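Hello again,

I reread your note about wanting to compare the complex against the isolated chains. To keep things tidy I'm splitting this into two emails, and this first one only covers the full assembly. Below are the input lines as submitted, including protein chains and any nucleic acid or small-molecule components. They are followed by the predicted structure of everything together. The single-chain runs will come separately.
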Amino acid sequence: MGSKVKRLREYFFSFRYLWNSLGILAAISVVSHVFRDSLDIINIALIHIIPVVIVSMHGETKATVLITLLSVICLNFLYIPPLYSFSVSNELYLWSFAIFGVVGFIITLQSRNLHAQKRQNILRESLLHIISHDLRTPLATIHGSINLILTHEHLEKEKVESLLEDIDYASLRMKRLITNLFDATRVSGEEIDLKHEWCDFEDIVGVALEEFSKKQNEFIALHVDTISLYWGDNMMLTRLVVNLVDNALKYSTPNTTIDFSIREERERVVIKIFNYSDYVEGIKMQNIFDKFYRLEDVNDISGSGIGLAMCKNIVTLHGGTIGARAHKGGIEIEVGLPIIKKVGLV
Amino acid sequence: MKKILIVEDDRSVQKLLEIACKENGFEFVSSETKKGAMMLFLSHNPDLILVDLGLPDGDGKEFIAQLREISKVPIVVVTARHDESEIVASLDSGADDYITKPFSVNELLARLRANLRRERLDEKIDETIVCGALEMHLVSRDIFLDAIPLKLTPIEYELLKYFILHANKTLTHKQILKEVWGVGYQNEMQYLRTYVNTLRKKIEICSTRPRYIKTESGIGYRFCCNQENE
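Full-complex prediction:
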């Protein structure tokens, strides 16, 4: 119940700029009506352009059109002779109305650009956050361990070896994270163009699995059907599989198998991945695809929380669906990708 | 002893490469610039060249192209640019292989050995080539897998032949399509993907975990011969 009210409120607030400009238009109408004798028609017209300017700063074409029309109608009805009618005595006024439209159009275009830049900034900020947060941890290991080795000449050999192993592992983590970040910048904008090509899912799975150690691979049970080539972005789909497997490995109960399957249904390719998990109870299934959502109490599991968010982005860009559910003491993630083009081989 | 020419302008990476070479029984000469590298190449006649793509006096790709005009020496590109199109461009301009920074010494050595071995393969093109459990007779066009005859379609045969003759080298999609299908087919990726898939089903034990035809994502394929490095 509460969430419904909240959603309604959010919906209302998402159009706040529209309400604002409607309010301003009303206020302007009142003011110019009261002072109509001391204001010339030209000033009144100029005042009426204010709501148009304000609404078009939000870059929404529909809203701009609506407010421009309302503003023009007010102006026409209340001030342009003949008064209190929609007819226009002098055709020159039609030009003034057209100028309203032009002003609205130009500002809308400009603010669109600004908005795109703003989105980029938000993205950059979240990336900076990840960099400072998640790259620092492995870097701390590397820096600290090396310092220790350099300053303590007489460390036992075993200790040095274990420190070196830590350094090796930490650097691998950094490498994986950097690859992830690099690809994340490519998929986080909605308007990004995918590089479509013919993809072989068996090949993609093969490449993805190479990113994991031999030992990790032993816990992955594959069921990959022979399916026809899929029209999609090869790199992105590889990233999708890597992140799905990575996530399953991270949260699976130790020493249990992960089931991974790909099959072709009528008009879509369905990828399913299942892992047993000890954390099923605490998971909010609809939240796990949000950026930076991580399970509580699992701080020891390394990760940036961008993995599944990236999966969602990739799937959305391909026009598909992704969902998670608790199932037989574990989590099953299902991805559905629509087949938009079928290969024609001569 | 094999001699390696290292062309790398970053001091610490250069040191790393030099130590790795020395400790594993390779001789080396190194240069930080394109010009110096060309001089060293002419005076030392190395068996393999490791070259960084970003050099202070020009792009590594130009250097590769210049070298290719005068020599067939194996060239392995070392690059920090995580950009497939750069790697593809350098492979197309004549490099044999690539390795991206950061890399482990084991990866580096595997690349060096594979490319030095390939050079030996080039010298003696026999009628019979053996590669792991695969045996290919070029004259009779017979292929055996674990001594069992293998049935391939003509295109599958041509593809496998091209792979085997260029084993242990990264081949770009374009190169393969041009050589196997012909000029004008360079962008017909669906052919390549389909035939690699069917070929894998015939020669690999598990086609999703291939041991012969490895995918270099976004770049092309590499046919692995002698899998001792795995």
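For quick reference: The helical segments of chain B are 11-23, 34-44, 60-70, 84-92, 105-123, 154-165, 173-181, 189-203.

B.
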